[in-house]
Amino acid sequence: MKTPLVRAAAAALAPALPVGALLCVPLAHAADDTPAGAGPSLGAVVVSATRSQQPITDVIADVTVIDRDTIERSGAAALADVLARVPGVTISRNGGPATTTNVYLRGAEGRVTAVFIDGVRIDSQSTGGATWNAIPLSQVDRIEVLRGPAAAIYGSDALAGVVQIFTRQGEAGFFPSVRVGLGSHDTRTLGVSLRGGAEGVDYAVGVGTERSDGFNARKLGNPDRDGYRNENLSGRIGWQVAPGQKLDVTLLDSRQRAGYDGFTPGLDDQSLHRLRTAGLHWSAQWSDVWSTRASLTRGTDRYETTPSPYLTETRVTTALLRNEVRLGQGLMTVDLERREDALQNRSTTPARTDRHQNALAVGYGWRAGPHNLQVNARHDDSEFGGQSTGLLAYGYDVSRTLRLTASAGTAFRVPTLFQRFSIYGTPDLKAETAHNVEAGVHWQSGTDRLAVVAYRNRVRDLIDYVSGPGPCVNGVGTYAGCYGNVGRARITGVTFSGGTRVGPVNLGGSWDVMRPKNALTDKWLARRARSQATLTADTALAGWRLGGEVQYVGERYNNAANTERLPGYTLLNLTAERPLGRDWRLLARIDNATDRAYESVLGYATAGRTVFVGLTWAPR
Questions:
Q1: What is this structure's pTM?
Q2: Which terminus in the chain has less CB density within 10 A, N or C?
């Protein structure tokens, strides 16, 4: 008898068997859950899976870790370009790196993925979700991508997963670095970083700027080049107040001005985006078995356009008190959390709207012999009433090289303030909810590793904009339309990932097969591919580190009605780097080396072949 998960996996694989027949053999031996050469070491520590530091060998969740070396070797222009190489991730853009970007995690929209920078939650209460294009990659030191609902740990938004982004940290000594780069479209980058520490104090400061003349984003829009300018900084200082007690202050500020093509010919449309995060974190180790962490954070997302006037600003303020108690071979966690959202937007009534959510979360992790258990429960209370979520996960080590995992969890996302109180809003919208089940097989022997994870996520009360008469202010007239709970989604899929080493060559890759469908209409969800794959390789040759990457994204539909088709595409990216003496490093990257023309959003161009060359000075 087939279980629901087995049926889900079979259904997901069915439409992609021709691609699977071509890719199955190489990926079985050459897959990786991170870009080539970036597989996490057995000693790596992961935070996103449980909100506590956890050895990666104990993690049951489906997590990818990307470190700073991998980010630098990628030569990527934006955060989304790095994430596009991660299993289960697809991106879409309205043009170049600074334009509106959406990151789909396991076939779900970016607005249902919780995003944190140094523990600070960022979100837009107008569009929903993080503004990916405003996060400066130059300040990012490490990324963790958790696939699967995690609302029982993080609360609202973590319906598809969690992305944790960390900036650089200080350490004992003094470590300066300077990075400059030049690229196609007259792209120029400059970054300076200072890290160090002594006598109980550590610090890290980074300043960066990037400018580009860009290219014309809309084929049928204004015939201009849509360039951008980004200026950013990050800072962190840690102080060992007393033995076992530490205070950390973090901040990030990113200011971006970017051209875009609107719908009025002849206008030089510009967007001005400012993203700020600030956090105050205190940790105390009271004994060998008891520790406490407290955080007060704020994330601010401000977006403005000119000459077409539009302004919106979101502030997310969070207070978290977390206690961890070790009970034998288990770890108990108790969280008290308060989140306050505020939106300033003249389309809402009143122009400033806000709300709060209070939560109590309890977790328990246990590891004994081959058994690994994780249990989480959380209750969030707000004007929507109570939302209770849970997560149960189990891992079993069949042998030293083979592990089996399974989990089930629930999640939710409350409507944005714009969806409720704008002229298009419906105040009595319900929260979107989800139920996810998944199972995985993970094998690793030396440098060889392979993982297969199958999942099914059912989402109810999806919020969408519906044209026609409705209860909102904009619900009458020629262009009537309102937000409503009008959808259900059923997303099933299988992710294959792994890696190996063949002689001097590191091979890696992943293959995702999905069925992201509207459960009411049985149509495919917009801009979600049914099949996608990444294959990477790198090797050392004559003092150079050479790398290649093939990205395949299958056919998608641009709209929910499935009447606008987006053809699939395959991209080839190449990298080369080498040290120049003791303290210098040269990096060269060619993206879209075959100059493939493709679209991730219908009517919006993407970059053709581009070249980037960077030089880094980092004295050892």
A1: 0.92
A2: N
Encode 319-354: b = buried (16+ Cβ within 10 Å), e = exposed. Answer: ebebbbbeeeeebbbebebebebbbbbebbeeeebe
**Residue 39 structure tokens:** 């597989």
How far is Cα 86 from Cα 103, in angstroms, rounded to an integer?
Answer: 11
Q: Which of 611, 596, 571, 576 is nearest to 91 (CA)?
A: 571
Rg (CA), the chain: 23
- What tokens appear for 303 in the block? 């977006």
For residues 120 and 280, give the distance between their C-alpha atoms in angstroms, rounded to a whole number. 10
Cα separation, 441 vs 516, whole angstroms: 22
Distance (Å, rounded) from C-alpha 84 to C-alpha 13? 21
297-309 pLDDT, tens digit each: 999 999 999 998 9
Distance CA 507, CA 27 (A): 9
Structure tokens belonging to residue 421: 């109180």
Q: Which of 284, 269, 179 minimizes the C-alpha distance to 216?
A: 269
**From CA 427, how far away is CA 470, in angstroms rounded?**
12
End-to-end Cα, the chain, rounded Å = 61
Looking at the chain, how many residues does it have? 620
pLDDT band at 43 (very low <50, low <70, confident <90, very high): low
Span 472-487, pLDDT tens digits? 999 998 889 999 999 8
Q: Is 396 exposed, middle or buried (0-12, 13-18, 19+ CB in 10 A)?
A: middle
Give SS3 for 231: strand
Q: Is residue 296 exposed (0-12), middle (13-18) or buried (19+ Cβ within 10 Å)?
A: middle
Vertex 486 angle, CA 483 and 490, to 5°: 130
How many Å separate Cα 36 from the centre of its chain? 19
Question: For residues 184 and 591, is the Cβ–Cβ distance under 8 A?
Answer: no
Helix (H, G, I), strand (E, B) or coil at 420: helix
419 to each of 75, 109, 158, 175, how far by Cα in Å?
38, 16, 18, 47
Backbone torsions φ then ψ of 159, nearest 5 degrees: -85, -35
CB count in 10 Å sphere of residue 569:
18
Torsion of CA 279, 204, 146, 432, to 10 degrees: 30
